[in-house]
Write a structure and sequence with these properties.
With 543 residues, this protein is mainly alpha-helical. 71% of the residues lie in helices and 1% in strands.
Length: 543
């Protein structure tokens, strides 16, 4: 009975937690922290169970690892459905891990800078989980609005002129994207009579004439709305200031927000592919948009002097890489792209939090330089009695942690060995070169490879310069004081990235299996449309 209802738990758990938190005022902080701990523990447990159920590790009655949950026992496509498969389960686990770590960081002090932080955070998780689980476009819109409404409150949390100014731009652009999304859904429903994704994949293939043209126009509007949410160029100008002015844990959590748009493009695009996918969900749009976004993000990281803005450009860089990879024909790049997405989300989440800690130590580097100069007798004082016993100074543990963590995050973002970023980019480039041998247009594969390498080279320059500026070029001496709740989340995220590189083989196998599953949309369609409220899934054969 528990396993039967498990697919709805990722939505219900944060919803109940948020509701219980709103019953008490913010002064009951320990009460809300305790509820959050319970919520995150349950979400992590449920995400792991669903991942194993979708992979077949835990035996279920799910056909081909696709679990369908009918709300109110209304059969699809008439009722609301929640669908768990390999891709959605992966996104649930990624959300739970990132959410738990950024929330722990926020408990150090950021949750007290405004009101209702904890319920807003839970509602954000509810919206994200719902967007990954829903099986119809209208509820995708609903969950988009839930997570965006929560993100508005979290972005403005703590107030401040710069934050409010950036937040208003963020809200305005996302409202426009939501408006476009709603228009597209109305047009699609008017033409096809359905918004269920599986049913839509069936009916879209039978459209012709004016209905087909209207459907493709609606799909183009839908694609633009998702590209805005995925931070594609030139629709991503709102992201930099928004992320740069958010509190560090919120910005870290926002690193997965752009991936919701990419998830929607991937999900709907793979379902519509056999019907002749509209251009909005194919390489005709996604590949050039991804290459342009990738170049824009790389140039932005080089031009940015503010560290938080540079991290925002790194998010755009990540989105561009994913859009370009998923815009290539076939699914040979889908597995490596999913691996890259996991690595970049975790690395960027750690990076946003790390930069705030580093900025507290604006100028400890000069102290090290002075100590080194003194140790090597490079100072003006040549008195042997004062210098003979000087052999340097011990680096405080906090500074060692910050420096090593910065190097690790830089390696993950740039894609240098030995961490997961290198495995991801190497897999992407290798897959692109393999694709160039059989795709009808091999030039795209070479363009993708060259752009990835160029962006990585620019990233090396930008992050090396930032590291030198942060750690070696200040004049005042300041050794930061870090709390365990601040150092632990960054350590956990970096450790997971190390584990990803060590376990690259099994993880890559799972992701390649996910890519092959996405290449067979019939598995998803049959599981949803053949689900009955009262009896097990049937095959449609005559008894």
């Amino acid at each position: 009975m528990l396993l039967k209802h498990l697919p709805i738990f990722p939505i219900i758990i944060p919803l109940i937690a948020a509701g219980l938190m709103l019953l008490r005022q913010d002064k009951y902080r320990r009460y809300k922290i305790a509820l959050s701990v319970i919520s995150f523990t349950l979400q992590l447990l449920v995400a792991v169970l669903l991942l194993n159920m979708a992979d077949g590790t835990i035996e279920t009655s799910w056909p081909e690892g696709v679990g369908v949950y009918l709300l109110g026992d209304w059969p699809a496509p008439f009722g609301i459905v929640v669908v768990v498969d390999r891709l959605s389960a992966l996104m649930l686990l990624l959300t739970a891990v990132l959410g738990a770590t950024t929330w722990i960081y926020a408990t150090a002090r950021w949750d007290r800078s405004g009101v209702h932080f904890h319920p807003l955070f839970q509602l954000l998780l509810m919206g994200l989980n719902g967007a990954f689980l829903t099986g119809d476009l209208f509820n995708l819109f609903v969950f988009f609005e839930v997570l965006l409404a929560a993100s508005y409150g979290l972005m403005l949390h703590g107030s401040g002129r710069a934050r409010v100014n950036a937040g208003l731009h963020y809200i305005a652009v996302n409202l426009i994207a939501s408006f476009l999304l709603l228009i597209a859904l109305a047009l699609i429903y008017g033409v096809t009579g359905t918004l269920n994704m599986a049913d839509l994949a069936v009916k879209a293939g039978h459209l012709s004439g004016p209905d087909r043209l209207l459907f493709e126009s609606a799909a183009a509007v839908l694609g633009i709305a998702f590209l805005i949410k995925a931070a594609a160029w030139p629709l991503n100008y709102w992201l930099i200031d928004g992320y740069a002015n958010s509190s560090p844990p919120v910005a870290g959590m926002f690193s997965i927000m752009t991936k919701v748009g990419i998830y929607a493009l991937l999900r709907i695009g793979t379902l519509l592919e056999p019907t002749g996918a509209p251009a909005a969900f194919g390489g005709a749009w996604m590949f050039p948009a991804g290459i342009a976004t990738l170049i824009f993000g790389a140039v932005g990281t080089l031009a940015a002097h503010n560290t938080q803005r540079m991290a925002g450009y790194c998010v755009i860089l990540s989105s561009g890489t994913l859009l370009a990879a998923l815009g290539m024909p076939g699914v040979i790049l889908t597995g490596p792209a999913l691996y890259y997405m996991i690595s970049s989300v975790l690395g960027l989440g750690a990076f946003f939090m790390l930069l705030e800690m580093v900025n507290r130590a604006q100028s400890f580097g000069s102290d090290f330089l002075a100590a080194s100069a003194e140790a090597f007798a490079l100072t003006d004082d040549e008195d042997d009695e004062n210098t003979s016993d000087v052999v340097g100074r011990a680096i405080p543990a906090a500074l060692v942690f910050l420096g090593m963590s910065f190097i690790a995050c830089a390696l993950i973002i740039i894609g240098l060995p030995p961490l997961s970023g290198f495995v991801a980019k190497f897999s992407l480039i290798l897959a692109a070169l393999q694709a160039s041998s059989y795709t009808p247009d091999p030039l795209n594969a070479w363009i993708f490879t060259a752009t990835i390498l160029l962006a990585g080279f620019i990233g090396i320059i930008a992050l090396s310069r930032t590291g030198i500026r942060l750690f070696w070029s200040h004049n005042n001496i300041s050794v930061p004081r870090l709390r365990p709740t601040e150092a632990l989340p960054v350590t956990v995220l970096i450790t997971i990235c190390v584990w990803l590189s060590i376990q690259a083989g099994p993880i890559t196998s799972y992701l390649e299996g996910t890519a092959r599953y996405l290449d067979r949309p019939s598995a998803y369609i049959n599981a949803v449309l053949m689900k009955n409220a009262d009896r097990p899934v049937h095959t449609g054969e005559t008894p």
